[in-house]
Structures are given as C-alpha cells and as structure tokens.
Design brief:
alpha+beta, 194 residues, homodimer
C-alpha cells in the first residue's frame, strides 16, 4: 500500500525501480524542511510520494533508484546488522529523512579493495550499527541510471530519536569516506496523516 | 560512430544505458550462430545493432545494460589487466561474441566477501588475464534494471583466435563461480561489412 500515510513500497527489490517524487500535492510523507549539505540543492517541496510510477502532477523532481545486492558489507557485518535492525514502517516511526548523495569521480575510479578500505577505516558499518534499531534505513543505488545522485538513503525513526539521528549524520560526515561526497541534501519528512 | 561495421558505441560509460538489439535487419554486426549454454535460449537473429536507442524495426529482442565501476577487481588486479589489455574496435577484431548470463538467487544473496572469495577461488581474473590482449572484453551490468540477464559480456578477437576464445570459455565454465550461472547464451558475430 504505497499510498498509506508514512509508507514505503513493499515491492522494492533488485530489478524494480523505486521513485521518490517531490511535489506540492499529496504523498505518503509531508516535507518539513529541505537542507543542502554540500553542492547543489534540490527545489524545496511540500510532499513526498514514493512509488514505481512516472512523475505525478505538480511534481518538482523525481529521483529514481533501485535496491541492490550488498556492495561492501561482509557476511559478519551482515549478521551483526540483521541481529539488531528492525524494518521500515514501524508505527512509531513518524519521522523520515531522504538523503541523496553523489560521490566524486575519484571515489568511483578506485578499485573495489581501495573503496572497501576507506569504507572500513571510516567505520561505516559500526557507526550505523550503533544507532540500530532506533534508526532504520534502506539504501538505494542510482549512479548507473545516469541520475544526478549516486545513492538515496531512506531513514525512519521515532520523533524522540531526532537528536540521535543528527548525531549519526555528524559521525558519518566526519569520516574519510565523506571527503568523497560532492553533493548531499536532506529532506526531512513526517507521516502525512490527513 | 555506432553504425560503422563492427563498432561499439564510444559513449558507453556509467550512467548511460547501452542496448543490444537482435533483429533481421542491418546492424554493425552479422550473427553467425546463437547457442544456448544453460537455461532458456534467445530467439535466433541475423543482425546485432548496438546503440543507446529504443528498439529499431524488425527487432526480436533488446537487452539493455550499463558499464559500471569495478565490483570485485582489486587495485593490483586492475594494474595487471591494464598492462596487458587492448581496447575494443581493433581493425583485426572481425569476430565478436555477446554472452548474456544470469546468476542464481543464491549468488546474489551472498555478502560481498563471500562472492569475492568464490570469484578468487575460481581464478576469474587470472583466467581472463591469460587471454589478453588477444581476447578483448567489456562487461555490462543489467540485473538492477529488471532485465532477464544479470550481465552481458562483449568479447572481440581476430578470427585466428577463435580456438583460444573457446578455451577461455571452457576454463571459466569449469569454475566454482559458474555453478551459480543459471542462464547463459552465446551470440557469435562477425563485422557486418557491406
């Protein structure tokens, strides 16, 4: 039920494009604030709709992406994550933040072991793990689609966890990995309950 | 010049879809034989056209994919490959083979280190390296697009290297990695010189 307030499509999986539409008309999520962290911003919007459809009416932008296989996570890391994480769509998760990111060509021209080494030195997995299960997240890839961003990360949490979410962002952004981020935005949302 | 006999689009890079159209009308390549190695086959065709366009007239199938960043290759492996490999489009490369492959869900559900370990035990890079520069290749990804295959590999070589190319295929197919391949076809081509 993609149209349920505060929902995320059940159908998201490899081989299915998922689309985030930012507009002035209803969606499952109501936008509270748009922030530009690095590089070019995105037009501010009032609502966010998430589905597999082409852009709806009165849409300012549509970002398309896909859920994919694990690119850096090891089996041990996955086990640790699965042990602690909870799914999207928890009733108390009234807040969501969509964070589109684009990394530099220096990042992408590195071989797999070079990128993994930076990911590891940056404590990417341990940082995320420390905020589980409070901060749930889903990564989407879009660089290979020719989109303006490389990743769209979707975060969900209870309103009481907002400060912890800000701390998570601050930790990630202080890492070596983030020196390769050349564009980053935040779209803060709450469930669009009529 | 995508329409030059025996050519491959110059524009192929991350974020650009490249399309392989199999049909009964002209393309840069003339099909000599279609073989089904594992699983479902593909309709036999007479010509292959490669470009970024929607399917042309009299097209039996179109396979879309993208060139992406390295997924398993380490910096050392990349250096060894770059030292030996030559590009696509060599004048003597009259032969090409398109090999679409689909791997099983068991493969895709593994973490990055588990897949890399199998790739390594299977000598994936050393096997390819041993056939350079004679057999040039370009990997394309398509699983994330919801395509019927996960990869399309494009090989080019001189006619005199045909037996060596068959030996390369036999080596790869005898590996542990190939036990995860559940669909594989071969489309053998030669430059379509009018």
């Amino acid at each position: 039920m993609a149209d349920k307030p505060g929902s995320y499509p059940d159908s998201a999986k490899a081989g299915r494009l998922i689309r985030f539409h930012g507009g002035d008309k209803g969606g499952q999520w109501r936008a509270q604030e748009s922030r530009t962290v690095t590089g070019l911003g995105l037009a501010p919007v009032t609502f966010l709709q998430i589905d597999e459809s082409p852009p709806p009416e009165r849409c300012h932008w549509t970002l398309s992406a896909f859920v994919s296989n694990l690119r850096y996570t090891t089996a041990d890391e996955r086990e640790a994550l699965l042990e602690r994480q909870e799914g999207l769509g928890r009733p108390e998760s009234h807040c969501a933040v969509l964070i589109p990111i684009r990394k530099s060509s220096d990042w992408w021209s590195m071989a797999q072991d070079e990128r993994r080494a930076i990911y590891e030195r940056s404590n990417h997995t341990p940082i995320g793990l420390a905020y589980l299960p409070a901060i749930a997240r889903q990564l989407h890839h879009c660089r290979d689609l020719g989109e303006p961003f490389d990743f769209l990360t979707w975060f969900e949490f209870a309103e009481s966890e907002t400060d912890r979410f800000r701390a998570l962002l601050a930790e990630l952004r202080s890492t070596e990995e983030w020196t390769y981020v050349e564009r980053e935005c935040e779209i803060w949302l709450t469930k669009n309950i009529p």
